[in-house]
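Journal club side-thread
Mid-discussion, someone asked how the predicted structure for our own chain would compare to the paper's figures. Pasting it here so we can look after the session.
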Amino acid sequence: MKRISILLLILVASTALFAQDWADSIAYSAHSTPFGMTYGDWQAAYIQYFFSIPASINPILDTTGEYCNVAQSSGPVFFLNSTFLGGPPVTRTCTIPAKALLLPVAGWECSNIEQPPSYGGNPQDMRTCAATAIDGVGTLKLSVDGKNLSQLLRANRVQSPYYTFTMPATDNILGLDGVTSGFSVSDGYLVMLKPLSPGYHVIHLFDSFVSGPAAGLSAEVTYKVTVQ
């Protein structure tokens, strides 16, 4: 009996090590600094990116994948957006470059230009505001080609530094005509994948909230991507 128990422990440990090795092979860990930036820095960079895009062509509102490549930088990281909470599940079909992929699965930002529950009058208020919202996250799911990365995602909660952002004076994502900039802090769960191999891949994102300002809401996106 003791021998069987020892063999089971070895099997469990080996399985865990294999899973960790696989996760390390496909994603950058939360404590790393991909391309010289922390995950918190990338959290801020993502919000700056999506605020800068007019609402009419903003990838976060996209239901087909038509706008996947809008405003993407020439740098080493490509942003794959989730979708707004409370909407129906979305499937996006995209052709993307062979870059690292930032997946902000569940996030919340608070700024000095929005209304509650996303308003903060100073950096500390913004931190508390964003953290309080993300404390309400319930279920998180992330898979790549059917392989489950949800456990890795759960370990990747980060908060951004205090940052500034700009947005169009009209047709902006916040619906604030005449407002072109603000200060913000964001909090959430995200993963940066290492570049996927050329060809077809399926990436699935899901998050839901059980408490806080987003209680009862969820978001779900399936990406069918061709990497070139």
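Post-session note: The radius of gyration is 19 Å.
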